[in-house]
Amino acid sequence: MPDIADSLGASKAASALLVLFIPSRDRSDQPIDQGYWVEEALKALGLMFGGATAFPQGRGIWRDDAQGGKLLFDEPVVVQCYTSENRIEQKVSELRDFLHRMGREARQGAIGLVIDGDYLEIGFPLEKLPTAQQPKVKKRS
Known about the structure:
Strand order of the largest sheet: 2-5-1-6-7
CATH topology: Alpha-Beta Plaits
Helix content: 25-40%
Structural class: alpha+beta
Distance between the termini: 93 Å
Number of helices: 3
Radius of gyration: 20 Å
Largest sheet: 5 strands, antiparallel
Strand content: 25-35%
Number of strands: 7
């Protein structure tokens, strides 16, 4: 079979599909600035891999086992880009930094992505909310 890319006159052929899920809520079920994270993901993937496409919100659910199996409904935006395995390997450190930053700053239990059909989930520890500071009791002399 002839090379399809050559037959079409394509100047670029990328066979690795990277899919990233941008959440709409944090693990406490509070809304996050999803638009900000979609823009950040598009910029990051565009710089690393040459482009990306965001698709409208879907409807999903995630089970947070660190919270006793609590079900969290979500309306994620799916961002995808085509690249090569070689390019992913070259940019893995930058990709990791972005994914971990989004996970921490958006207060996620996990960030999910798919690379070439393999689902990868980066988990984040359950952070306890700070307790109100108790006033110090003065010692009697």
